[in-house]
Amino acid sequence: MRDRDTDDSGARERRPDDRRSVSTIIPHVPRDHHDAPPAADASDAAPARPRTRRPRRAPKLEAAPGGGATVAPPRPVHEAVDAERRAYQRPPRRNDLASPTSQAVYRRVMETLHDGGVRFLVGGAYAFTPFTGIPRSTKDFDLFVAKAEIRRALDTLAAAGFRTELTFPHWLGKAYWGHDFVDLIFSSGNGVAPVDEGWFDHAPTGKVLGVDVRIAPAEEMLWSKAFVMERERYDGGDVIHLLRSRAERLDWNRVLARFGARWRVLLSYLVLFGFVYPGERSRIPPWVMEVLLDRLRNELTNDAPVGRLCQGTILSRQQYLPDVLEWGYADGRLLPNGEMSAHEIADWTAAIGTKK
Q1: Is the separation of the CB atoms in 142 and 152 below 8 Å?
Q2: Helical (H) or strand (E) element with 182
Q3: Could you give the number of structural domains in the chain?
Q4: 106 and 149 in contact (C-beta within 8 Å)?
Q5: Percentage of the chain exceeding pLDDT 70
Q6: Which end of the chain is more exposed for a tag (fewer CB within 10 A), N or C?
Q7: Which domain-ending residue is among 216, 235, 270?
Q8: Based on the number of CB atoms within 10 Å of its own CB, is 281 exposed (0-12), middle (13-18) or buried (19 or more)?
Q9: What is the DSSP letter of 181?
Q10: CATH value at residue 196
């Protein structure tokens, strides 16, 4: 199915590049009419011609029903939308995703790892922006590395002068340079999205801050973000926007395989996508919906699993604590149902409100 390139008014809609190569990470942002124009040489400037603004014509009044006071006709829909847009403050235009100082640190980290032979993928805002076209400033820099290579990555950066730490032994390391830092991610906080060879096998290439790199695949980005539903951070909007920008280009067989037995989470987002964009719900391949709905229908004829299991902790490490600490539910993150040990869960829970 082809992308929808036009909206109802026929205007062209910008979409990220179809190619698997992600060649830009700082999207071109057109000049806003609020931006100051470039300075011109005063000697070449022609005398300014005074402009007169024609007074806005008052709306034509129509007689109210019953012969009462006259009323103005309703504004066209597009005028009402324009007025609503003007009522909200426009976010600042940004030509970059981080300060020049931070960019220099990020560039040095990538070059150091590359010279040390450590494989990595660029993620975070520097991957999300070219995939979706949504600019987003960032306080850090996300690199994905294989779990087997995290120690070598930290040692390589430490030898180059960075202060490093294995922040959470089950998913995250960090490298600091002054006030800037880089996240070295090798799994997810809930343990469901380990960085394996599939990440690297399907990673598109690109150039980030002048460095030739590979980008975290959209399928893995969608998969890992789908399980982030904390009170202070909910990545559902990112998932929906990834679907909007990549629906026809996603490897849906691989997406289904990634979610595996947790397919209900994927189905919930696909249903939500049809609510957010009712005119674009057909962009989700019908066969994908049929596969997931067949699984749902099959559950109606089978008995529910025995036991008290709460998998909400996979979605939020904090909001489902009463279930596992007070109400007697088993924690869905804990082996063998999940991928985490009791020690890792305790360490991750103790860090609520203090660390990433």
Answers
A1: no
A2: strand 180-185
A3: 2
A4: no
A5: 72
A6: N
A7: 216
A8: middle
A9: E
A10: 3.30.460.40
Cα 146 to its chain centre, rounded Å, is 21
Name which of 105, 116, 114 is nearest 162 in CA terms. Answer: 105
* DSSP per-residue letters across 258-293: HHGGGHHHHHHHHHHHHHHSGGGGGGS-HHHHHHHH
- Return the number of other C-beta atoms located less than 10 Å from residue 75's C-beta: 12
Mention every residue, 6+ apart, whose C-beta is less than 8 A from residue 275.
none
Tally of CA atoms within 13 A in the half-sphere of 307 that contains its CB? 9
Distance separating alpha carbons of residues 348 and 320, to the nearest angstrom: 14
Task: For residues 333 and 257, give the distance between their C-alpha atoms in angstroms, rounded to a whole number.
Answer: 19
Among 216, 250, 273, identify where a domain stops. 216
Is this model's pTM higher than 0.90 or not? no
Q: Which of 40, 17, 39 is nearest to 28 (CA)?
A: 17
Distance of CA 155 to the CA centre of its chain: 29
Domain that holds residue 346: 309-350
> CA 221 to CA 218: how far, in whole Å?
5
Is the residue at 148 inside a domain?
Answer: yes
Residue found by looking up tokens 């209900």 in the block? 264
* CA–CA gap between residue 317 and residue 53 (Å, rounded): 59
Ramachandran class of 84: left when φ > 0, alpha when ψ lies in -120 to 50, beta otherwise: alpha
pLDDT at 53: 54
Smallest CA-to-CA distance from 212 within 57, 352, 52, 24 is with: 24
Half-sphere exposure of 32 (CA within 13 A, CB side): 8
Amino acid letter, 350: A
| Beta bridge mates, 208 | 211
- 166 versus 95: the higher-pLDDT residue is 166
Residues 6+ apart with CB under 8 A from 107: 209, 210, 211
Mapping DSSP to helix (H, G, I), strand (E, B) and coil, where does residue 5 land?
coil
